[in-house]
């Protein structure tokens, strides 16, 4: 114990000497810390400095809370895979999500997590994706038909459009589409309200202050949760009453039995798993698509390549599951979009026992943070890290990336269970939009990534809609867009 404490002190001295850790001692440092955290509360990615994109493993001390940031593939592998059992999802993640998803898969731990994961796995197996793909094309088609009714050049908020279509997709997979437009809108709206309140950085947790301190927005978040509970429980009750087998995700969860005890999920666990799949499944894919459309609008050459591929492979018909392997460039656009704008931009874990990551001592109870936003743009790990270049995910080049430097779906045993679902959905929707439309960023609009529970554009993504057969907008405007975006 003595030795570990001495190691920790040595670590701090060494880090402070290297400018990697701030020694927060006086009042000035306290003010600095609180100011930084306040900035992070509004936008989590504002916590990172330019220098952080070059660092590997470094630590911060926020009052009582020590946070080790792991921005190094070997370190990521250690935390998320090799020494997985020593890390649990942090209190920050738990506090942000527990009111909403209870004991659901995303935040449950230990034996409960293992059991729920085993039960849920078959639902997301590759063999089921073909069936889900049909619901995806139908939902995309309905959205495109709505878009057809707009005049050419009409403005849409693409973030909202994508959230609506992905919510529809997940509803179809979960409830065979029998949710109804009104109830689907209710679910969607409640999640939105929740994200606006509890999706922010929790300063009390980040600084290790006592938990009884009241949190901003907690009451509003509880109201959103109550609304969701009523909706989800209502849907489950209807399904039980009707007793008709639909072979959708809800059926699968309702019929699942513990392999050891033969027990079914309790009503509250069932509710939690429905909430998790909805939350984890729609918001992330919606953001991935929103960023992909934004990037294509800034890179007309990539957009042309997408159109060429989609026309050649599909020739105007709707994509089917088996077409997806023939659309590698569309997929590469999604992959590269996920690199530059990872919807899940931060993972926070708590060390259960003392550990060492690389040369750094990590004491039990301290927090470890891995940020895909940082590591995906790491100056040494990626060539042209801030440049949109889908080609890096094609051919031989893709083999050059370290697996643990690219984490849009996480890594190790907790890898996203819906990865195949999300990628199938994003590829289908992107291809179907590209068959009929181009989207252009509103002239003069400056895009700012906003890090909350997920990474989304602040104030949405206002874009104008242009039919592919209409006269394309000039290259001058494309040049203007490039100037308005400092990152790409
Ligand atoms: C592009 C879309 C998606 C992205 C970027 C994404 C990202 C992620 C990430 C990064 C994690 C791991 C979080 C961590 O380790 O802390 C995760 C877990 C999870 N995702 Fe996804 N996801 C996507 C789509 C989906 C879909 C479509 C579903 C379900 C319909 C889904 C359900 C889940 C669940 C249930 C977990 C928790 C798994 C566990 O802890 O065992 N995700 N996702």
Summary keywords:
single chain, 488 residues, alpha+beta, Cytochrome p450, 3-stranded antiparallel sheet, 17 helices, 52% helix, globular, disordered N terminus, binds protoporphyrin IX containing FE
How would the blueprint of this fold be written?
Layout: H1 2-17, H2 27-42, E1 57-62, E2 65-70, H3 73-82, E3 87-89, H4 91-101, H5 110-120, H6 126-148, E4 155-157, H7 158-175, H8 181-198, H9 203-207, H10 218-242, H11 249-255, H12 267-298, H13 300-314, H14 328-340, E5 347-351, E6 355-357, E7 360-362, E8 367-370, H15 372-375, H16 419-436, E9 437-441, E10 449-451, E11 455-457, E12 462-467, H17 475-484
Parallel strand pairs: 2-8
Antiparallel strand pairs: 1-2, 3-5, 4-12, 5-8, 6-7, 9-12, 10-11
How would you sum up this structure, described in words?
The protein is an alpha+beta fold and 488 residues long. The protein has a single domain (2-484), classed as Orthogonal Bundle (Cytochrome p450). Helix content is 52%, strand content 10%. It is built from 17 helices and twelve strands. The strands form four sheets. A five-stranded mixed β-sheet has the order 1-2-8-5-3. A three-stranded antiparallel β-sheet has the order 4-12-9. The protein has a two-stranded antiparallel sheet with strand order 6-7. Protoporphyrin IX containing FE binds next to helix 12 and helix 16.
């Amino acid at each position: 114990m003595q030795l570990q404490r001495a190691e920790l002190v040595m670590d701090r001295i060494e880090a402070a000497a290297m400018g990697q850790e701030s020694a927060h001692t006086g009042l000035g440092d306290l003010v600095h810390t609180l100011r930084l955290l306040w900035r992070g509360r509004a936008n989590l990615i504002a916590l990172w400095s330019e220098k952080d994109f070059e660092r590997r493993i470094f630590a911060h001390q926020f009052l009582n809370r020590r946070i080790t940031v792991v921005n190094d593939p070997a370190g990521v592998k250690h935390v998320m895979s090799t020494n997985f059992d020593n890390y649990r999802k942090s209190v920050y993640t738990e506090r942000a999500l527990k009111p909403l998803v209870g004991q659901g898969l995303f935040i449950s731990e230990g034996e409960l997590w293992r059991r729920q994961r085993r039960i849920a796995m078959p639902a997301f197996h590759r063999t089921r994706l073909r069936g889900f793909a049909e619901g995806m094309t139908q939902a995309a088609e309905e959205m495109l038909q709505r878009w057809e009714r707009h005049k050419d050049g009409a403005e849409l908020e693409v973030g909202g459009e994508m959230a609506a279509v992905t919510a529809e997709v997940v509803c179809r997979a979960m409830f065979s589409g029998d949710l109804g437009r009104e109830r689907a809108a209710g679910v969607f709206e409640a999640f939105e309200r929740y994200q606006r309140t509890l999706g922010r950085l929790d300063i009390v947790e980040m600084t290790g202050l006592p938990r009884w301190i009241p949190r901003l927005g907690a009451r509003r978040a509880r109201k959103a949760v109550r609304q969701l509970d009523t909706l989800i429980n209502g849907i489950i009750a209807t399904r039980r009453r009707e007793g008709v087998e639909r072979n959708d995700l809800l059926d699968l969860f309702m019929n699942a039995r513990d392999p050891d005890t033969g027990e079914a999920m309790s009503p509250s666990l069932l509710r939690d798993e429905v909430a998790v799949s909805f939350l984890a499944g729609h918001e992330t894919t919606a953001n991935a698509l929103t960023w992909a459309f934004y990037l294509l609008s800034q890179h007309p050459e990539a957009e042309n390549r997408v159109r060429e591929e989609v026309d050649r492979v599909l020739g105007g018909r709707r994509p089917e599951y088996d077409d997806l392997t023939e659309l590698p460039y569309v997929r590469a656009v999604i992959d590269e979009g996920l690199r530059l704008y990872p919807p899940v931009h931060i993972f926070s874990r708590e060390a259960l026992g003392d550990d060492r990551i690389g040369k750094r001592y990590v004491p039990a109870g301290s927090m470890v943070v891995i940020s895909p936003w940082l590591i995906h743009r790491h100056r040494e790990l990626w060539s042209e890290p801030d440049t949109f270049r889908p080609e890096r995910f094609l051919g031989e080049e893709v083999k050059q990336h370290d697996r643990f430097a690219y984490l849009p779906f996480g890594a190790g045993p907790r890898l996203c269970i819906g990865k195949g679902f999300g990628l199938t959905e994003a590829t289908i929707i992107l291809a179907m939009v590209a068959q009929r439309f181009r989207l252009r960023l509103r002239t003069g609009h400056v895009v700012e990534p906003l890090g909350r529970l997920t990474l989304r554009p602040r104030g949405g993504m206002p874009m104008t809609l242009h039919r592919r057969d209409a006269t394309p907008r000039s290259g001058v405007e494309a040049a203007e867009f490039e100037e308005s975006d400092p990152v790409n």
